[in-house]
Task: structure prediction
Amino acid sequence: MNFLEELNFSEDEIKQAENNVTDLLIKELISAKDLVIHNLKFLQEYGIDNYKQIYINYSRLFLMDPSKFQKIFTKYEKNSLLEKLNSNIDVVEFL
Amino acid sequence: MNIGYKAETDLHKLVSLTREDNEIITEIKASEKEAVDTKKQAETENVDFNARVAEIDENVKGLLGFNESIIKIGKDYINVIDTNKLPFDMPSITQAAKIIVENEEAEKKDLLNKIEDNTKAIEEAKNIISEAPLRLKQEETIRKELKTLLDRALSGADDVDKRRIRETLSKLNVFSEEEIEAMLLPIMFPEQGLKAAVESFVEKGKTTSDMVKDALEFGAKKVAKKPASTVKKTSTTKAATKAFDLDAHLNAARNTKKEEPKKSDEPKKVVKTEKVVKESIEDFLKQNLDVTDEDIKFTPAILNMSLGEVKEAIKLCQENGIDPKEVSLKEFVNGIKKLVENVKTIKKYGYEVNDMLIAKNPYLTVIPNERVSNDLELLAQRGMSLVRYTGNPALIVVSRETNKLESAIHLIETIDENYFRIDPVNMAKIIGGPAARMNYCQENGINYIKADGTVESFIESAKEFKELFGIDIDSKSLPSAKKCNEALIEMVENPDVVMALSDFWKSGKYLESIELDQEQMERFMKIFNNIKAKSTVASNSVVVIAGKKFGIFNIQKNLSWLISKKIEASDNDLINASMWYGEHKNPESIKEVNIALDPNTMSMSLAA
Result:
């Protein structure tokens, strides 16, 4: 998943992201890299600092349609969400 | 006496009306003949028109029936197969049918108007025809009376007075009262005008036609009206009555792209139709699935689906309790059937799969169902669950190849089975590195378990681990299972036991149940109980012998398989093969474990 380099992922972070998912998922993420990058950029622009950790642990979410992906985050009060996400990425599980 | 030009002209008219073939009578006869012809023509035409109307009714009825049928067939076809593979251009056919029906209805309306006009003309003609004999008789009577009047006037009879003249001329209904008054004296006194008019009529060669023409100008109101001329104008051509050729229309619709003469028009229609279909899919997705332009942009293949396919996919979702709005477009493209099939399989193993879970795992359509089924079967046999602390199953695990999942479980259960049990999502990971780091921590007394039971981040990150402990630990740090198997072959009396297990695990037969007869079962229990009895830790999942962990599941599987295959092997071979096959352990530790299991065996091994 070298395409993550353009979003400032380090080699170790890319390796972690790859190790965290199955071969099938890696293949899917690579084939949909434009969508993945688009969703990652949304998190960046939305102000979620630990977007890379979210990707490393929940990369499957980045295969979602942009509107559905964005809705996961925008349906909550932004500042409150950012605070929680930046302290614990596993909050994503409950969004 | 000068009676004036006007009176002289009127006298000429009057004289001409005394003839048997005067133009009034001639016109009545002509009107009658025309009425007869008109009636005949109108009646004939109405027969044709009515026949055509009946034909149109039949065509329209048939066409509407056909249209309904083709739409139904199209819908059924779309529901079952693929609208792009429809053997006909349904939009063109239905559009052609609509146009044809409209044309047919317009022609019918025109024909009904013509029939109505003809019916009126026929009635008028009938009146003319029926009245003609009476009128002729009346005109003949008037003509004779006029002739008598003028003859008597010319002969100088005394009974030709003003009253009689007015009465007779009034009956002609040709002249006005003023004109009649102007002619009274020239008739009463023929020398003052009548005689000259009669002579002039004969001598000057004025034709009867010339005379009557003038007379008719004044007596037009007496002339019978003509039948409606519209009858002639509404004649229909044979082409108009040509029967509707459905096959020809269908062929035209199918071949719009091929027909050269229509090249300039028809292809445009086809392009427009395709565009309309694509637009309607886009609109349909936006309206029914809350899809945005951005969503479509990243899954443009969705536009290659037909509206029917999309509707069918939505229907399939709904029938299986899945909210289609939560399903990403990529899943629609890959096939909702696969999603439904996998979700059903997952549910079959007791897991709850809700819409949000489906939304957050938009790859379920690309996992082979056999893999999903095998993975879940493997976990069920091992008594492992996919359910995370959130209450939701870690669906990503079922995307892992079953052999790799089995190997991961085998490895982790001999190091720290809680790594999978506390958070099943770890089963989807490549765990060689974390397992090696956990192993290193265990061997070096480093705590890597957090308060909540999960592992510290340095277990997941080789970089962080090195930063903390100054050593690179990855999957290569673990003893190789291959080397352990090679050492096992060297150690056992019958290497076939190792080969049999190699086949067992590679073939996937470990997912199947193994049948043992009574004798085999007794041997299995004897050997397994011997192994378990030597464990220093009481556990349902592992035995610990000489400080080494062995997974009970694998021992039982290996042992039962070897016994069921009736391979000629000693108990020691069965024990060693069952415990050590595929283990990531140092082969050097085999001897230590064997001594712990049976000191006599150890003695024999040393002696050997």
